Amino acid sequence: MARNLIASDQTIKAVKPGDPRKRLNDGDGLFLLLFVKGGAHGWRFAYSLHGRRNNLSLGVYPDVGLAQARKNADAARALVAAGVDPSEVRKSDKVDIERKREADRLADAGLPSADSFEGVAREWHDTRKSEWSASYGEKILARLVADVFPYIGRRPIGEITPPQLLEVLRRIESRGVVETAHRARENCSQVFRFAIATGRAERDAARDLSDALKKPQVKHFAAITDPKRLGELLRACYGYTGTPVVRAALHLAPMLLLRPGELRHAEWSEIELDTATWTVPAQRMKREKAGKTNGVPHIVPLPTQAVETLRDLAPLTGGGQFVFRGERHHDRPMSENTVNAALRAMGFPADEATGHGFRATARTMLAERLSVDEAVVEAQLAHSVRDSLGRAYNRTEFLEQRRKMMQEWADYLDLLRATK
Considering the entire predicted model, what is its pTM? Predict the structure, then answer.
């Protein structure tokens, strides 16, 4: 096909306003469109690819002279010959240029680029945080900020390799916090999967690293399961000479199967002594955010011993909000360390008894000593239990069975306390 039909730049300069021609054809698809964009001339390259015709802009004359326009046309022809659409290449190049400009702007402002690990991680966190409780979301972000971002945060997420990420996780592991290293790996894996879904990475660099880390040692809360030793602990609780509020908490903690936070935040408005029922609001239970927001409350049937303890405490704290009010600040619940501090003061070390360990004590001894159905115990512990068909038990089920169990458990504790 004929080329170089325009004799020289002088030919173009000789074109004057009013010239009837619409274009000057240079051959093989290259032509100069006359008097466009406010009177300037524009280079165009016409081509066909996959049965479709298209025009590619190659610049404005005289900024782009005849020789340069021909070079640009040659480059476009080469792409078409290779089956590549030069218009798509142009769009991609523009995106890359804009992306680089944005990355430079963010870097100048001390911020991570949108394609960096930190940029993607923060975007993922913003997308998901509405599903989590505020404290849980803050923990995830704090973990990434402290242990991951300083080392790979500014790197393009699509270029991070498993060995590079493993080096970061090894730093965490070397501090002796193996469980934190595993949690960081899982968070990183979630970030990589988000990057894959949004077209910024092709693989999850964290996926295969779990076995490369040390296995975390599962630590259970210290709990007494020997009846004789539990009896000694119960006698110590009933003989506690501290404040009446802490004494009442020590009476109820082994009896009610609640988590320490659920117990110490108890409010008088939640407790009906006449019906022997305590209704713990869903938002105070250990659940995912949806369960806290839309879930049903947790019902705690109160045995007669618990009702008696609460009636004794009512004249002291019943006029306020909290059952177990703080000693110095009556508008707040007692400290989270109060029960454990009392246990230490009574001579029960942290590796033997804890406030949270009372739940494990009850779970073990209800099954082993009183032969209570595990599903009933788990329902009272507010665990999600499944039957043989995989159906999850509702936490409001087994209410009558739980009421009977709670009274049996309180009576059993009285028996242990009385038996020396």
Answer: 0.54
